[in-house]
Write a structure and sequence with these properties.
The protein has 200 residues and is mainly alpha-helical. α6 packs across α7, α7 packs across α8 and α8 packs antiparallel against α9. The N and C termini lie far apart (64 Å).
Amino acid sequence: MPPARGDRDARREDVSEAVWRVLAGKGFGGLTLRAVAAEMGVSTGMLMHYFPTKRALVVHALDILERRSAERPRRARPVAGLAALRAVLLDVLPLGADDTARNRIWVSSWDLALADEGLGAEQAERYGRMREALLPHLEAARERGEVAPDADPARLAATCVAFVHGLVVQALFDPVRFTAEEQTRAVDGFVRMLGAVPEK
């Protein structure tokens, strides 16, 4: 018998916390109904009242990950233009333990997104939103004369996303070389190049 609505909502929050703990420990590769049920100390059957399939669980986990990413602490945006862009890029990187855990979870989700058309489309939309979030900073940089006057902010935004996620992957796989300090230096060099390379 399914739980009552009030119990269901409260229990769903418990499930969400258990899902997050499993993701933090094992990534999406270890996210199963059995693993979440074990984390909660309940039966798989009980959990299936909330998530009847593995895919439903994965969709919920991605929602949790996106929400926690959106709610994470951010650096102050110093001024408009490239300085603000720098702060945004640094916020993406695995510079601390929490950021590293969150990025490991995101990267572990890519395999699932590549194998599932619906999840892949949602991931593409996330990247679109990320590019759009960078546009105001790049448009301001162009207005301030920090990048070439004929620079295409949309193209620069795509370049920024490609750069920062490439740096994320390198830092996750080689944290000894790509320390927080080295990642910061890489961002600083990249931002300087945005202002130095003319648009073609």
